[in-house]
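User
New here, help please:
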Amino acid sequence: MVLNNYRHLLPKFINGPVNFCAKHKITPNMISFLGFLDSVAAAVALALPAIFMYNYSPITANFNWWWACIPGWLFFFTGYIDVIDGAVARKIGKSSNFGAFLDSTLDRISDAVVVLGFMLSGMLWPQNTLVNNMLGFTTLIIVLMISYTRSRAELEGVVMKGIGFMERAERWFFILFSIIIEWIAFAIQVQFMDIDPANVFHIFPYLHILYTVLCFQTLWSRVSWAFKWLNNKMPEKVAKILAKQETLAK
């Protein structure tokens, strides 16, 4: 919802790759699969924090931080590629119902894979495996239901665009932000405060809880909106939205 206000800035960052893909006949479906594979790679990297996120000290004694931020970069490219596939489809005029279906399906699997990566990492709650897994499972259900409620409501004619704070772009940005903050906090404590890695204060679990709460707010907003729309609780607002859509369609 929030990031939609800045979509006009996207062409500055994606025109180059979009033109390259169009020129070399790289199809939107191929890009969607590439994004999916990248999300799997990001999930694997996130699931192995002892190798990546928290293990740069012995591997790179001179604080060459690039090794530790590999999970962040991989996750960044999942969002970047997700933007490019739709832009390429519009550029070459190959938007299709199946392409949209495939992209949406791969996005849902990618969302689930990333959450599973966090669950396996133990980063959601390092002190207790059961709490870690329960948090991950709760987040997984809520994130998948956010997408399902929109899809199901739109089949009933409900306009769901912009409903809820944590749409996919916001969710992606929040997770990326959380990864970066966790990495920086760990680096400061270990490298500059000389704290033993086993005693580091992890900020990621609390950011993840906030993420889950905001996702639940989005899910609740969508269910509430669909309830009001389908039960004719806001006829004037619905009429305005439908009139606006009809005007845009013309």
About this structure: The mean pLDDT is 86. The first helix runs from residue 11 to 23. Residues 60 and 183 are 15 Å apart (CA to CA). The radius of gyration is 20 Å.
